[in-house]
């Protein structure tokens, strides 16, 4: 199997082939989606919500992200693996940012890291890139800043914020980032960004005129059920499948149907 690289991702943009990306946080799920042929696996700090049950992504630690990333990397044979560098481990101190990024790369074996923000974290981005670590940007709705925004509504609807986002995207490209995620912004703005920068732009709630799409795997498989934003397309209803399977098992145990003779030694 030919491994996906940043070079291949750039070629996909150049050739107009859309890039597919999903999150994963553990070995079993990563093995499934890598086997299915996904291009990029993101070990997202959404693990804080999906895996740990926190309300935001802020509480997850660098050690916990490395644990998730290590499990994912063990499963992956083809996909490019990107890891979110968590809140508090890169902002405002480029030496700490570099140290955090190096820990992720060294301890997990992942292929790149993702950071949230533009001009504010420029020094950290440059420092991490200088060590040869590929960096993916993330602009628009950046969940680590949720207490600044106050809500999870669409970002950059106003001209000033849209202009800053476009400038930040150009800045991230100039710094040397290999791709940018755009979250929950108007489709017209996302299209403009994807046309302006030459690196791949991956959208989530950013419309179809970008170079690829990303979703949280538990959301698109219907495992998480409370979270149903307009941008989410649900491809399966695993909550129903899992609930029914578990209920069936309980029934069989109670009815002394399981295990039967063939299932016993
Ligand atoms: O953590 C995450 O799942 C993400 C994606 C939504 C882009 O950052
Ligand atoms: Na994230």
From TrEMBL:
InterPro entries xref list: Pantoate_hydroxy_MeTrfase (IPR003700), Pyrv/PenolPyrv_kinase-like_dom (IPR015813), Pyrv_kinase-like_dom_sf (IPR040442)
Active site: 183
Subcellular location: Cytoplasm
Cofactor: record remark: Binds 1 Mg(2+) ion per subunit.
Main localization of the protein described in the UniProt heading: cytoplasm
UniProt keyword Magnesium present: yes
Molecular function GO labels: 3-methyl-2-oxobutanoate hydroxymethyltransferase activity
Sites where the protein binds Mg(2+): 45, 84, 116
Binding site for 3-methyl-2-oxobutanoate: 45-46, 84, 114
UniProt keyword terms in alphabetical order: Cytoplasm, Magnesium, Metal-binding, Pantothenate biosynthesis, Transferase
Cofactor requirements of the protein: Mg(2+)
Entry's EC annotation: 2.1.2.11
Pathway note: Cofactor biosynthesis; (R)-pantothenate biosynthesis; (R)-pantoate from 3-methyl-2-oxobutanoate: step 1/2
SUBUNIT field: Homodecamer; pentamer of dimers.
Described purpose of this protein according to its UniProt entry: Catalyzes the reversible reaction in which hydroxymethyl group from 5,10-methylenetetrahydrofolate is transferred onto alpha-ketoisovalerate to form ketopantoate.
Family: Belongs to the PanB family.
UniProt-recorded name of the protein: 3-methyl-2-oxobutanoate hydroxymethyltransferase
Gene for this chain: panB
